[in-house]
Amino acid sequence: MQATDTPFSDDFMLLQEAVIEAGNMALARFERGDTKAWEKTPGHPVTNADLEANRIIKRHLTGNRPDYGWLSEETALSRDTHLSDVVWCVDPIDGTRAFMGGEPYWAIAGALVKDGRAVCGVVHAPALGETYAAERGKGAWLNGQRLLTSSCDEETGCKMIASESMLTHPAWRVPWPEMKLARPKPNATLLRMCWVATGEWDATLALWRKSDWDLAAGTVIVEEAGGVASTHLGESFRFNRSEPAQRSLIAAGKRLHPLLVERVKGVRLPDPNWTVRPYDRANDTEQTKMADTPDTKQLLHLVIGGELKDVRGIEFEDLSKLDFVGAFPSYKAAYDAWKNAAQRTVDHAEMRYFILHAHRLLDPETGSHHHV
């Protein structure tokens, strides 16, 4: 496929074959308008093509590599996956909304993750006729042409793929400079990252939670093109942790990346892995905030959300419009409810959900304080 002095690995070739096979199926459905969808969870549509692509890729990859773990948007996570050091990380269709709407900006993607790091990745956008691919030490490629990120070294005038409402939000203490923004921007995060890898766009930014399958393949492609992909704090991504997600995304060339980190690092976003599940390897997480152990008594955990006045703070715009998700007796139950609610805030950085732990209750009749 690509011209490189070092042959691509068998794992890479296997991944590419699987992704392209799934892409051929999805393109056929797309062209005949077979894009009927339903919601797997509120705000998260899925189509038959998503599920069929998942089956094709899983059959091809796990059939040939039965010892590797499997992590996919359309497949339930398992304990075995979390405890594997080598895992396929797959997004059967990134950009399902574009696929449903007859727009070409969607892709089939997969990566191989070893010890938390993506070592090869393929992003195939069949409706665009584009196949992006990379393997550690062997470069990044688009349809056989070598990719390099841009050398842009200033924010003013840079070409940015990001939510315009986020960049123009009045909460920024220092307004963003004039930039060329992608209008419209592709819904598929992996395509945004790949466009940065080509050098045609200088950066992409998302100040909200992203799943591992949204990032893994794009990360190795951006980095092999000479760029950097990280959280908004500049943290390198570590995939296949207890919760397969990252707090945010910045992907850019090496000169622009630190400037963007400096601008946005004050935004407070939680690491999804501050909660460790019982079977997780705790030393693989950044921090353990609260052990997920059986509760000895029924405590009160409230899940609430609303629009923030400042994306860097916790002051709500309008308390009368708070979304009360529910009250839960355990942290785990509250966390699962928070996770489902937080996934509805994509592209709305000012809309945030929180878990409120009640440590002391006041009885207004007696004035007594009850510690829990």
UniProtKB/TrEMBL annotation:
Keyword terms: Magnesium, Metal-binding
Molecular-function GO terms, alphabetical: inositol monophosphate 1-phosphatase activity; metal ion binding
Superkingdom, taxonomy of origin: Bacteria
Claim: DNA repair is one of the keywords in the record: no
Cofactor: Mg(2+)
GO terms of biological process kind: inositol metabolic process; phosphatidylinositol phosphate biosynthetic process; signal transduction
Residues binding Mg(2+) 1: E73, D91, D94, D214
PROSITE patterns: IMP_2 (PS00630)
Signal peptide: none
Residues binding Mg(2+) 2: I93
Family annotation (SUPFAM superfamilies): Carbohydrate phosphatase
InterPro entries: DUF4170, Inositol_monophosphatase-like, Inositol_monophosphatase_CS
Family in the record: Belongs to the inositol monophosphatase superfamily.
Name of the molecule in the record: DUF4170 domain-containing protein
Organism expressing this protein natively: Henriciella algicola
